[in-house]
# Entry
Amino acid sequence: MRLKTFTAPSMGEAMAQVKLHFGPDAIIVSTRTDDDGVGVRITAAHDHRDSDQDYPAPEPQAQSGRDPLDIISEALAYHNVPADLADRLVDAAAESPGDKATLKLTVAVNRVFKFDGTDRQQPLTPQLMVGLPGAGKTVAVAKLATDAVVNHQALTVITTDSIRAGGYEQLAAFTNILDLDLLRADDPDSLKAAVIAAGQGKCLIDSAGANPFDSQEFERQHRLIQAIDCAPCLVMAAGGDTGEAAEMAEAFAAMGAVRLIATRLDIARRIGAILVAADTGNLILDGFSATANVASPPQRFNAISLARILLPQNESELSQESPSWATINSQNAVA
# Structure
């Protein structure tokens, strides 16, 4: 399955591009006016995985005979997605054309969740990682830093983790390998000074784990966020309870979090908590980590990759004894 965005001065010209590239079977996922107010942007999908040729003849339909909405409903139930969110996804899938579960779910998650189409190689506002202790914030920073160095990006790495024993040393072990200086900021003023010194390059900020329901810890983290112009990113481990995830996401969103990186998808069997967190906190699904290898950066979430993670490898077979779907499907995820 392929997902591609087309930009043109008019809707007719954009649709012509879609038809030329994907053919008459293309599925329109979304349409919107371009950022500058001139022209339109269409995101379209086609159920074909080759990327270097125009649209092929339609593939034979699956012979399972199963209703794709039943497949989607069972998959969402497996992942412990709460009924209200599952109903919204199934309703969105029902409105999409086609008869394949993967394509229908791709359209559905694109309508329900927010994804980031920004080029990761472009410098953004500083990314400050927040989350519970042990969620994987430091490793997420190390992975993103490695990716930036490999791609020859100007990079500054800062840690505000002056509370946890060994917090500075853990990240320093990674930055030393990358031949980077690790800056330390113990308070909002020193963090602001460090970010200003970083200039226009990419800036990654690690923070101590925080309990968002503890007023002192909430305030300490919130003051750091307020001190700089940043894009706080909630780092959350997959496999948790959906009710807890909803409350955590709501609390961290109130703190300022706008993005979400999911960790431990290599060992988690169910990711309903991640979906609930993104939905409740109105968070952009930024990326996911499916390996402990620091040299592998978090993969980008998009509608196709999320649909493939949610569905089993074989759409017609759902088994609670199957291996981790995330492990299987992350290999096929479109970054």
About this structure: The longest strand covers residues 2-8. The longest helix spans residues 137-150.
